[in-house]
Amino acid sequence: MITLIKSATIIDSSSPFHHQKKDILIQDGSIKKIDTNIPSKKEYTIVERENLHISCGWFDTSISLGEPGYEERETIKNGLQVAAKSGFTAVAVNANSNPIIDTKSAVEFLIHKAHGFATNLHPIAALTQGSKGINMAELYDMQQSGAIAFGDYKKPITHDNLMKVALLYAQNFDGLVLSFPKNKSIAGEGIAHEGVNSTKLGLKGIPALAEELQIVRDLFLLEYTGGKLHIPTISSAKSVGLIKEAKKNGLQVSCSVAAHHLTLTDNELHEFDSNYKTNPPLRTNADCKALQKGVRTGVIDIITSDHNPIDIEHKKVEFSEAKDGTIGLESLFGAVNSVLDLEDFIESITSKPRAVFGLDPITIAEGEIANISLFNPEKKYTFTKEHALSTSKNSAFFNKKMNGKAYGIFSNKQLILNS
Question: Rounded to two decimals, what is the model's pTM?
């Protein structure tokens, strides 16, 4: 197949064509030619879209798929198709399936099921057996089978020595350890950010302190052990400051922020809509602004959707009983592009996450493998249920105004576009 992408503005700071509008000819999965005007031929598949922009393929470092065990929430097949149409050429899949992804064979199952799709699937294996936080899983074996990192999704490691040993052990094979930032004894039974809104609404609060204490502990352990630590989905202003200081002190720490924490606050909770029940909880406008600044200044490395499909039986119930989580692949670009500059977004979803998770760098240049996301950064629309391609429809972004829309991807010799 020969594909010709016409009049696309290239956003890739590592490319010689950065900020230039070019035609891109792709043959056998590689970029054969980039020029101002490449004549089309009848055997070419022509891609033309309004205000077409392209960048290196987007990589979402935290998505959950139900399969195995929770296929009613999302299958691997549908999840990868959603990711492709949402602009993602790669996703890192969390271990929160049933059974938990905590063995070599479970990692290989995920990779086998994802073979042949346009979007690449990279497993994040569990750090502990069954994600129970007691015994460390066989990290090295799972890495040899294709796991790119190790973490118990949304479950903090409460055992200090276990985290210390994990950070020490993973250094033997340059492994990346994830630690979810939540002190369980401080968080207690809380379900919303502790503050004015939780008090008004009568919801048990989770103070930002619960997140910050865990980060302080992990940073002290990292300073002692060395190694590489990734802190997923931070949500408070003080967390940004703690990680900034740790980086200044030379620690190998990285972090991510979810799109909903960059753009939404706990003011959304007044309707008691369980789609806004997330972990960590939505916090204040001041936290939002600090997180946005953290991305702009490079303290926060990665933006993620933290896509977590939850079936209606576990979501459309009383707020206090609902499971945490929101889908986010379909809305990530439009939501984040409304509050950040385009290039800050692109860096945080392409080159930076690939570096943190140890994937090879990519660029848009002649002779390179075509790994490309296609999008319109100025498309304004309101996100509705019709835009939700996931099996589960638990989005915190329904009826929110968006600025920017993904057209699709070219990856693994496949062109996937929205209709």
Answer: 0.97
